[in-house]
Design goal:
By secondary structure, the protein is of the alpha/beta class. It has one domain: TIM Barrel, CATH 3.20.20. It has 17 helices and 13 strands. The strands form three sheets. An eight-stranded parallel β-barrel has the order 1-2-3-4-5-7-10-11, surrounded by five helices. A three-stranded mixed β-sheet has the order 6-8-9. It has a two-stranded antiparallel ribbon with strand order 12-13. The radius of gyration is 21 Å and the shape is globular. The two termini are 40 Å apart. It binds beta-D-fucopyranose (FCB).
Length: 472
C-alpha cells in the first residue's frame, strides 16, 4: 500500500539502504588467514585492471568497519547490504574453515545490529577463491557443491542474526564478462566455459536457497540480478537480433530458470549439453524477492568481434548522460520495476542504483564539501521514477544506493567514484558528499522530485519492441 501524503510518501516499512561488496572495500588481502581470490589474480595481471590498481588496501574497511557503520547510522539507513568474501571464510574454497575470517563477519554483523541497521548479506559478489578457479571455477560442476558447503558454514555462523540473504550478485555480469568477454576475472573468452558457468551458477543458486531455507530461521532469500532494457543502437535486423540475444543473456539467463523453471529458447539450445535430469527443478526454488541492480539501459549492436555476436553500442545523439557516461533513462527504470512485478510475482528489492564519476571529480573543496550535484540529480530522478512506478502498482519493497564509499571499481580500479562518502585513497579519510545529506533527507520523508528526461527516440522504441518479440 502506498500511503498518500503531501510530497508523495513511500510504502510503509520501506527498506532504505546502501550497498558495498567485500573485495571492493575490505583490503587486508593477506590478513588473518584470508586466501587469494580471482580478483587478487586479475588485479596483479598486467592489463587486468586500469592503472594496475588492486584491492590490497581498497578502503581498509577490514580495520575501519566500525567507523563506516557509524557513518551509516548518521546517514539514517535502516538496512546495509554487504557481501562475504568466500576466501576469508574458506581460504582454498573447500574444506578447512578460517575462524578468523568468520570472526570478522561476526563483528561486522554485531556492529550493524547495534546501530539499529538490518543486515542484507550477499554470499557471492564475484571474489571466488583462486584455488577453485584452478579447478575450473564455475565451469566445473563441482563448484555447485563447494558453494553449498560454503553457504552452510556461513548460515550456521551468522544465520542466528541475519535473515536476509542473497545467493549471488549480478550472475550474468560475472559469467559473461569473466568467461566470454575476458574483461573481468577469471579473464576467459571461452564459449563452452561460459555456457557451463551459466548453468552451474544457476544450480548453485538453487542449492544455496535450499541450505539457507534449512538453516536460517525465518529466512528472506533472493538473488541480485542486473536487469535493464537492451536497446538496439539503430533499427537494423542485425542490431535487433543482437539486442534479442543480449536480452536473453543479460536479463533472462538467470531469472527465467530460477522463477519459471526454463531457459529462454536460444540459450536453452546452447545449454542443452550441460543440463542433466532434474536440474531445472533444482534451480527453480521459491524465493522471497527479486533483487534488482539497475543503472541505465544498454544500447547494443551486432559485432563479430565478441563471442556471441552482440556488443555494447552507442547511445542516441543527445542522450542524457551520467558523469560516468552511462545514459540516464529513469523512465525505463520505472518500466523495468513494473515489468518485473508482473513477470515474476515477488516483491522487488532495488539492491543497487547509483551514479559514477571519473577521475578528478568529487573532490572536497577547501571547506571539505564535496558538491556532487550530478549524483544528487541522478538519484533524485531515479527515486522519482521508482516512486511513480510504485504508485502505478510496482511491488517495490526496498532501495539501496550503490555505494556508501568510493571504492575499487573492478576493471576500472579507482578511476570511478560511486560513493556518497568520499574516500581519499592516500589517507583513507572519509568525507560525506552532498548526496549523503540528500539521501538522509529523502529517508526522513523528504520531497519526491520529478524526473525530466528519459524519452527514447520513437525509432529505437520500435526497434526495442521488435527485439523483444523476435524469436531465435
Ligand atoms: C555493479 C556491481 C557493483 C559495482 C556497480 C557500479 O555492476 O554489482 O559491484 O561495481 O556495478
Amino acid at each position: 500500500m502506498v500511503a498518500k501524503s503531501k510530497g508523495g510518501a513511500w510504502p510503509k516499512g520501506f527498506v532504505w539502504g546502501t550497498s558495498t561488496s567485500s573485495y571492493q572495500i575490505e583490503g587486508a588481502v593477506n590478513e588473518d588467514g584470508r586466501g587469494q581470490s580471482i580478483w587478487d589474480t586479475q588485479s596483479k595481471r598486467i592489463g587486468g585492471v586500469a592503472n594496475g590498481d588492486t584491492g590490497d588496501v581498497a578502503c581498509d574497511h577490514y580495520h575501519r568497519y566500525a567507523d563506516d557503520i557509524a557513518l551509516m547510522k548518521k546517514l539514517g539507513v535502516n538496512a546495509y547490504r554487504f557481501s562475504i568474501a568466500w576466501p576469508r571464510v574458506q581460504p582454498t574454497g573447500r574444506g578447512a574453515v578460517n575462524e578468523k575470517g568468520l570472526d570478522f563477519y561476526d563483528r561486522v554483523t554485531d556492529t550493524i545490529l547495534e546501530a539499529g541497521i538490518e543486515p542484507w548479506t550477499c554470499l557471492y559478489h564475484w571474489d571466488l577463491p583462486q584455488a577453485l578457479q584452478d579447478r575450473g571455477g564455475w565451469a566445473n560442476r563441482d563448484c555447485v557443491g563447494w558453494y553449498a558447503d560454503y553457504a552452510t558454514v556461513v548460515a550456521r555462523r551468522l544465520g542466528d542474526r541475519i535473515r536476509n540473504f542473497a545467493t549471488f550478485n549480478e550472475l550474468s555480469v560475472f559469467t559473461l564478462f569473466g568467461y566470454a568477454f575476458g574483461w573481468h576475472a577469471p579473464g576467459l573468452k571461452d564459449r563452452e566455459a561460459h555456457f557451463k558457468s551459466i548453468h552451474h551458477v544457476n544450480l548453485a543458486h538453487g542449492a544455496g536457497v535450499d541450505v539457507l531455507r534449512d538453516l536460517v530461521p525465518n529466512a528472506s532469500l533472493g538473488a541480485v540480478h542486473n536487469y535493464t532494457p537492451a536497446v538496439p543502437e539503430a533499427d537494423t535486423p542485425e542490431n535487433v537480433r543482437a539486442a534479442h540475444d543480449l536480452h536473453e543473456h543479460w536479463n533472462l539467463a538467470f531469472p527465467e530458470p530460477q522463477f519459471l523453471g526454463y531457459y529462454p529458447p536460444g540459450l536453452a539450445r546452447d545449454l542443452e549439453p550441460y543440463v542433466q535430469a532434474g536440474d531445472m527443478a533444482r534451480i527453480c526454488r521459491p524465493v522471497d524477492w527479486f533483487g534488482l541492480n539497475h543503472y541505465g539501459p544498454i544500447f547494443c549492436k551486432a559485432s563479430e568481434d565478441y563471442l556471441h555476436g552482440f556488443a555494447w553500442g552507442d547511445s542516441p545523439d543527445k542522450a542524457p548522460n551520467a558523469a560516468c557516461g552511462w545514459a540516464i533513462y529513469p523512465e525505463m527504470f520505472a518500466d523495468t520495476l513494473l515489468e518485473l512485478t508482473e513477470r515474476y510475482g515477488v516483491p522487488v528489492i532495488v539492491a543497487e542504483n547509483g551514479c559514477g564519476t571519473g577521475t578528478g571529480s568529487d573532490v572536497p573543496d577547501k571547506k571539505g564539501r564535496v558538491a556532487d550535484s550530478h549524483r544528487v540529480d541522478y538519484l533524485n530522478q531515479y527515486t522519482a521514477a521508482m516512486h511513480e512506478a510504485i504508485c502505478k502498482g510496482a511491488n517495490v519493497k526496498g532501495y539501496f544506493v550503490w555505494s556508501l564509499l568510493d571504492n575499487f571499481e573492478w576493471g576500472l580500479g579507482y578511476m570511478q567514484r560511486y560513493g556518497m562518502v568520499h574516500v581519499d585513497f592516500e589517507t583513507l579519510k572519509r568525507t560525506p558528499k552532498d548526496s549523503f545529506h540528500w539521501y538522509s533527507k529523502l529517508i526522513k520523508g523528504g520531497p519526491v522530485g520529478k524526473y525530466k528526461n528519459g524519452k527514447l527516440p520513437a525509432e529505437l522504441k520500435g526497434a526495442l519492441k521488435k527485439s523483444l518479440q523476435s524469436g531465435t
